[in-house]
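Hi P.,

Sorry for the delay on this. The queue was packed all week, but I finally got your sequence through. Input first:
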Amino acid sequence: MSASTPNSPASSAAAHFAAAAVSAPANEVRLSVEQASYSYVPNPSQAPLFTLEATSFQARPGELVAILGPNASGKSTLLKLVSGALRPLSGRVLLNGFHTGNLDPRTRAQRIAVVQQESRLLFPSRVWEFVLQGRHAHGRSLRFESADDIIIARGALARVGAEHLLDRWMDQLSGGEKQRVILARALAQQPLLLLLDEPTLHLDVGAQMDFLEVLRRLAAQNHYTIVVVTHELNLAAEYADQVVLMQRGKVLRTGSAAVVMQREILEQVFQASLSVEIGASGRPRITVLSGTLGKQGTSR
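Then the structure:
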């Protein structure tokens, strides 16, 4: 990719984001999704395979947003719109006032980090080598990592509680350890916005809670804006500042867990009999009484 000229939109965006990373008021809107929609249309002569209806929500520095819903509700599609990997059919997605889909790949990688459901290892590597991959967006091609890159990578591992894994081989880690290291690689990008697609999918209950505790701490202490796709009701209820509840390509409700996660609408969305109780913290606790969660096809 050619370098941006000093007065180009890409250069302006990069400079703006660099300044924003230094200081961000907690009440300032960082992410704004405004009536964004999308359709998967493999052939213009055919009906769409899937449509995400117009969607709106906002997120601020230090907030953790959970996009919650069963399979095929559009959670991952919405995450791709937020990341800029897809451009909305209508509406817009703004990160600090800039359209995410219009950011050049380098600026986008510096400001938006995405943790996918599966992060396959293409070749054997130690933890420190894997985390340093997150510095590629900040470097130049055909160069070795700088001393600053190494300091940033070690700091990222420390923030997720995984610095002791520095010299371990990636294929020797437990599921929970591996997810922390993958998260550290994302943090090494030094993003403003952290997006995670079902990050707890293959973890046991204890590891799930540990991982969400790490995310909650990162949002509070380091002012990341974090968006997590999940179908785990109680994880969303316990850790999210905002919940975006989805079903079949439509956002049904947005707001705090206590406002969004009410029994009638959750039973409608997840097709199960549920009990919802509000705990001492003011957050709901959901129990499945009967039925099976989420028999609604393949996720998008």
